[in-house]
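Sanity check record (used in CI):
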Amino acid sequence: MPKALSTDLGFQTLSSTPKKEPLKSKAPSSEPLKLERRVDVSALFYGMLFPSQSGAETGIANNLEKSVISEVENALTSPADIAEKVLKLPSQLAVLDQKLKDDSVDIETLLEVFKTKPVLSIEVLKLCNSPAFKRSDKEVTNLQQAFVQLGREQIRRLVTTSLMGEIVEIKPIYYRRFGLQIWRHSQQVSYLSAEFGKCDPDTAFMLGLLHDVGKIAIFKMLLDAFQLAEPGEQPSSSLFKQVMTTKSLSLSALLAKHWQLPAIFETSLSQLASSHSKPSDELALAVWRANLISECSMLLQANQLDEDDLSRLLMDAGLTREQFDTYHERLKMF
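Expected output for Putative signal transduction protein:
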């Protein structure tokens, strides 16, 4: 059966179907017909993050899925409840980000602010010394060194990453893998978005970090629904996958609006949610490409994406295989 080709941010179809010739009255050729060959990237990625225990996928939602889908629809009409009860934005984020953005606030003042936030300071230092951000063989042991080695803008991104990471925490051990993987994906997308969004790399970075908050919210709803589910019930229908990949972007946009973030975040996320092809806006396009490359990288690393499918998707992303391999090696460090 042919597979649908899509990305997590919209359903962009690439086809290798040859041009059809007019029908002739001659005897049919013995050569087999070539069917359109597609790959559903979002379904593959979702399946990797949250595999069905039975291995079987159906087109009909079970009671567990229906319950969550209903909650998602309610959330789309009233995102305030989700923003307050399910996925609350860290209160420190806006204040700290403004201080780091303001060049008139000197480093000494910023260091004094960090002294009042020891947990955040530890998290930032851990990121400074992680393979993805480490700049030298010498370990960074204090924030003064961190500012010297990485610079103010990079510290600002690390602070944002640390604070946003708080909302991704998923308690039940059985499902923690989903939270870790989706957060890894969000970090990869934020990094790549800053690379591609040359018009405004800092906003592109934050947008990449935010693009999947709707998906995280839906997954947390799912965890609550499990408490009332029948034994053995799992989310395995194609319909639920569609909700996770399309409705989640709309929810991300609404959450950005409720959090009173600058309008550019809601605008870009809304464009990503409604677009069935590459977005035209530069920031939205940066996140669209970043998301696709991250999905391809994680699937390839998990041996769940073949070379032919990867080649097709890289063509859509506008990357050569050599360019992708360079990014792929960097993304492994997250």
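The chain is about 60% helix and 0% strand. If this sentence no longer matches the regenerated tokens, the check is flagged for review.
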